[in-house]
């Protein structure tokens, strides 16, 4: 037991360094996903049939194929086929970003559809173009509405980022496995890794809840508003 | 009215959704300062007509001329310009829920008219005061009563300096105690000479404001004329019968 504790304490700085990489992957993936999700949701709702077909196919692919398969496909297959020399870190960030983008697109799409259509009409009636109405009226409201679902996505992506170790990105999971295979303190080390993931999830979700309260519209309930 | 300047000409406007014809070759001529009131049974096409006039619903056929300029329905720029000049008031207000009363008004001034923020706010405050809500500028729609929301909506439309205001049953979603404040704002607009087309079942607006009543049924204007003529005692017009029923209803309610 003495040994287990000292191994954990000794390796903690090394493991925590991995959490910077994990955080980097998650932040990059979430913002890439946000960017993809916003554009795709607008296309899914307001686009013509051709655009909707393409975007729906994208959603199905990233929803239907496991992240591990995508990681191998992109890292060893697609990127080298295209002659791109992306690091493991970049590959994981891009793959997770594209995956969460598909899910975020559906989150935002649902929010757009739940928005009373009259507001879009009113914006058009004032002379706004469709793009102006989407940017000034639709997006500010649906992004607020989507924060709870978005924090769900955050926790999923954070945990999926542990898969990065399969292509050798030195994040928390990879480092834990590395230490465990040398010290044989599997139990205590994986408990430690679990706690680090848990704390990162907790901090992110609390932060997003604070953000939700901060941008809340006075007198406006988040759900079922007329 | 004939000697006055015609500001809006609507010719043979038609609109169908699927198999059902909602508007069937409707024509209107509106002079500057004139107020026309649309009445008739629901489903008669009043709302669709108003939405077609500022192209919120693009007509299938027909012509719209604003200030003698023909609107090309296929040209987005034409449609955006038309909408800037033709204000619209909706039955259920349609305020932007994420913006304060003030910002509901400034947003279009800033984004559409490209007005600087300060100037837009100054204009918005002026309009809010005009509708008696000068002290409510920081409140969000969810914090306002129905009557207040509709007054903000009217201020929002007026801030764009529309040549014409279209009102689609502006008091129908309000409970009786709140109707009065909206009616008095609309009457104030009439006094100032605002050109309006209004669909309403509010008997006092029909009697007191209408220069002309248009009775719509099955997508057509089946009767039109000044209230004095259409609603004269003994006249067996449809409008007369309709207003009588509205009167009976308001007596039952009152």
Order of helices and strands of chain B: EEEHEEHEHHHEHEHEEHH
Could you state the CATH homologous superfamily of the domain at 21-171 in chain A?
A: MetI-like
- The class by helix and strand makeup of chain A works out as mainly alpha
Largest interface: A-B, 24 and 30 residues
Query: What is the multimeric organization of the chains shown?
Result: heterodimer
Number of separate strands of chain A: 0
**Biggest β-sheet strands, sense, barrel of chain A:** none
Which structural category do the helix and sheet elements of chain B fall into?
alpha/beta
Unreliable spans of chain A are 222-226
CATH-scheme architecture of chain B? 3-Layer(aba) Sandwich
Shape by Cα distribution of chain B:
globular
Helical content of chain A, roughly? over 70%
Number of domains of chain B: 1
Assess the beta-strand content of chain B as a share of residues. 15-25%
Average pLDDT over all residues of chain A: 90
Q: How would the global form of chain A be characterised?
A: flat
Task: Summarize model confidence as the mean pLDDT of chain B.
Answer: 90
Strand order across the largest sheet of chain B? 6-7-8-3-9-10
């Amino acid at each position: 037991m003495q040994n287990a504790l000292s191994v954990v304490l000794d390796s903690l700085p090394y493991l925590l360094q991995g959490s910077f990489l994990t955080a980097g992957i998650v932040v990059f993936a979430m913002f890439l996903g946000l960017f993809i999700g916003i554009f795709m949701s607008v296309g899914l709702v307001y686009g013509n049939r051709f655009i909707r077909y393409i975007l729906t196919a994208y959603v199905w692919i990233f929803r239907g194929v496991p992240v591990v398969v995508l990681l191998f496909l992109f890292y060893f297959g697609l990127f080298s086929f295209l002659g791109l020399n992306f690091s493991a870190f970049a590959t994981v960030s891009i793959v997770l970003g594209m995956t969460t983008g598909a899910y975020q697109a559906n989150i935002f799409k649902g929010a757009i559809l739940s928005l009373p259509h009259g507001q879009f009409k009113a914006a058009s009636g004032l002379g706004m173009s469709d793009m102006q109405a989407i940017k000034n009226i639709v997006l500010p409201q649906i992004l607020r509405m989507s924060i709870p679902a978005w924090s769900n996505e955050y926790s999923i992506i954070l945990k999926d980022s542990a898969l990065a170790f399969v292509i050798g990105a030195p994040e928390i999971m990879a480092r834990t496995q590395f230490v465990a295979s040398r010290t044989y303190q599997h139990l205590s080390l994986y408990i430690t890794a679990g706690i680090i993931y848990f704390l990162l999830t907790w901090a992110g979700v609390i932060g997003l809840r604070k953000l939700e309260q901060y941008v809340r519209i006075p007198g406006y309930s988040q759900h079922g508003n007329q | 009215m004939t000697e006055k300047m015609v500001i809006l000409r609507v010719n043979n406007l038609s609109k169908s959704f699927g198999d059902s014809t909602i508007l069937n070759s409707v024509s209107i001529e509106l002079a500057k300062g004139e107020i026309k009131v649309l009445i008739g049974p629901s489903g008669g096409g009043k709302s669709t007509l108003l939405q077609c006039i500022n192209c919120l619903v693009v007509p299938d056929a027909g012509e719209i001329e604003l200030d003698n300029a023909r609107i090309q329905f296929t040209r987005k720029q034409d449609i955006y310009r038309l909408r800037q000049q033709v204000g619209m008031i909706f039955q259920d207000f349609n305020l932007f829920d994420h913006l304060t009363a003030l910002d509901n008004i400034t947003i279009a001034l800033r984004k559409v008219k490209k007005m600087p923020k300060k100037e837009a706010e100054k204009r918005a405050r002026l309009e809010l005061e005009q509708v008696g809500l000068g002290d409510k500028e920081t409140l969000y729609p969810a914090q306002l009563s129905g009557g207040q929301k509709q007054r903000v909506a009217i201020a929002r439309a007026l801030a764009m300096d529309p040549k014409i205001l279209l009102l689609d049953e502006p008091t129908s979603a309000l409970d009786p105690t709140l109707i009065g404040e909206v009616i008095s704002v609309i009457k104030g607009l009439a006094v100032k000479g605002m050109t309006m087309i209004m669909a309403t079942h509010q008997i006092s607006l029909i009697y007191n404001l209408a220069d002309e009543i248009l009775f719509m049924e099955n997508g057509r204007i089946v009767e039109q004329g000044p209230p004095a003529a259409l609603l004269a005692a003994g006249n067996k017009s449809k409008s007369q019968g309709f207003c009588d029923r509205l009167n009976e209803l308001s007596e039952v309610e009152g």
